[in-house]
């Protein structure tokens, strides 16, 4: 990276890129879950959840992240309409965090 | 007190396991401890040449395990550091020539005559690595600040923990301070954050390593030099001393320091 790029912050340093790539690859390694399998899991979970509530499928994000307590699968699922009483969402499991979002 | 058995491993090849084993063995011996180093890389023997003891091999680890030689016939005493002895690997056999039980028995036979037994593990996660790990009380992971080496280190840490061994400690090898300053090399905190294990040493890239390996005279035999001092600090940390980790920022030229000053 040259000085101009550094001054204007155009691209992250290669060390930052290395760290981000490592964190991602290790999250998958540790969970023994390839990006392809994660995609499959995401589709299945979206299928189940959308039978109960309306969600914004285009903005669903599944990420494997690492914290001091180990690897976590974090699902960020935007809800399109606030769930009605009749359509109470199932309790979220510890591994899956559901975030509601105002009607878009 | 029986010897502490420490296995030096990495997963990835070429990150400096053998150089680390040789230099830590010398550093510990220079601190007055009796050290045996075992080359567990059967078929790809290298610790002997790094230590400069290749011409004195009569018998090897497999000869001892298979009963063709007694331990004291196979152990090579280093004349430069009398408290250091090497048990070389066999060169003409492969990793299946020895099993985990035999490695445990071998270390058992050595443990009353030494304070430390350092085992140089082969690269990889298979038979040879398992042999090297089996007798270990502790393990040290060697990595370089590169994506591939850190990834393999993470895999090895998982395998060591699943083998019911204590969490290994980490040596970050071949660190290049200038590249770190330019944002082109993973820095120590980055590697530690990713691997989440304790650090036991940082060894800077040092051309003296190449020269010393050429000569068969490891840097830890010398008083001066970045890598030599780093190995001595690691040895003292292994002995329980609290030694602050060196920042390698100040070790470069005056020009670099001025540039850094202006950059802040």
Largest sheet of chain B: 8 strands, mixed
- Terminal-residue CA separation of chain A: 40 Å
Major sheet summary line of chain A: 2 strands, antiparallel
CATH H level, superfamily name of chain B: P-loop containing nucleotide triphosphate hydrolases
Question: What's the CATH architecture of chain B?
Answer: 3-Layer(aba) Sandwich
Largest interface: A-B, 17 and 18 residues
Low-confidence stretches of chain B: none
How is the largest sheet of chain B built, in terms of strand order? 3-4-2-5-1-6-7-8
List keywords for this structure.
heterodimer, A: 104 residues, alpha+beta, two-stranded antiparallel ribbon, 3 helices, disordered C terminus, B: 264 residues, alpha/beta, Rossmann fold, 8-stranded mixed sheet, 12 helices, 41% helix
Kindly describe this structure:
The complex is a heterodimer of chains A (104) and B (264). With 104 residues, chain A is an alpha+beta fold. Chain A is 38% helix and 13% strand. Chain A has 3 helices and 2 strands, in the order H-H-H-E-E. Chain A has a two-stranded antiparallel ribbon. Chain A is globular. The N and C termini of chain A lie far apart (40 Å). Chain B has 264 residues and is an alpha/beta fold. Chain B is 41% helix and 16% strand. Chain B contains 12 helices and 8 strands. An 8-stranded mixed β-sheet of chain B has the order 3-4-2-5-1-6-7-8, sandwiched between helices. In chain B, helix 1 (17-30) packs across helix 11. The longest helix of chain B has 16 residues, at 147-162. Chain B is globular, with a radius of gyration of 18 Å. The model of chain B has no long low-confidence stretch (mean pLDDT 93). Chain A binds chain B through residues 1, 6, 13-16, 18-19, 21-23, 25-26, 29-30, 66, 68, and chain B through 146-147, 150-151, 154-155, 158, 180, 182-187, 190, 193-194, 196.
């Amino acid at each position: 990276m040259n000085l101009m790029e550094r001054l204007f912050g155009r691209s992250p340093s290669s060390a930052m890129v290395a760290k981000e790539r490592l964190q991602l690859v290790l999250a998958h390694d540790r969970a023994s879950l390839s990006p392809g399998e994660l995609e499959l899991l995401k589709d299945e979970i979206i299928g189940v959840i959308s039978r109960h509530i309306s969600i914004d499928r285009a903005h669903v994000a599944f990420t494997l992240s690492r914290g001091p307590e180990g690897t976590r699968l974090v699902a960020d699922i935007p809800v399109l309409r606030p769930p009605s009483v009749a359509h109470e969402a199932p309790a979220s499991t510890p591994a899956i965090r559901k975030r509601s979002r105002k009607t878009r | 007190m029986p010897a502490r058995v420490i296995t030096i491993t990495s997963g990835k090849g070429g990150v400096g396991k053998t150089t680390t084993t040789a230099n830590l063995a010398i550093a510990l011996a220079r601190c007055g401890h009796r050290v045996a180093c075992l080359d567990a890389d059967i078929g790809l023997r290298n610790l002997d040449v790094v230590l400069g003891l290749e011409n004195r091999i009569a018998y090897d680890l497999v000869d001892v395990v298979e009963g063709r030689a007694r331990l004291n016939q196979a152990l090579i005493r280093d004349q430069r550091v009398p408290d250091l002895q090497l048990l070389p690997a066999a060169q003409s056999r492969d990793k299946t020539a020895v099993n985990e039980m035999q490695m445990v028995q071998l270390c058992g036979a050595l443990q009353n005559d030494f304070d430390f037994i350092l085992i140089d593990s082969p690269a990889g996660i298979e038979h040879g690595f398992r042999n090297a790990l089996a007798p270990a009380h502790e393990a040290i992971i060697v990595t370089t600040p590169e994506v591939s080496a850190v990834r393999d280190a993470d895999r090895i840490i998982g395998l060591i923990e699943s083998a019911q061994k204590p969490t290994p400690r980490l040596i970050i090898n071949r660190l290049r301070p200038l590249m770190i300053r330019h944002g082109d090399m993973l820095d120590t905190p980055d590697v530690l954050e990713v691997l989440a294990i304790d650090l036991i040493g940082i060894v800077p890239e040092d051309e003296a390593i190449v020269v010393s390996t050429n000569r068969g005279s490891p840097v830890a035999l010398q008083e001066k030099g970045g890598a030599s001092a780093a190995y001595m600090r690691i040895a003292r940390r292994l002995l329980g001393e609290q030694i602050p980790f060196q920042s390698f920022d100040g070790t470069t030229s005056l020009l670099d320091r001025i540039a850094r000053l202006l950059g802040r």
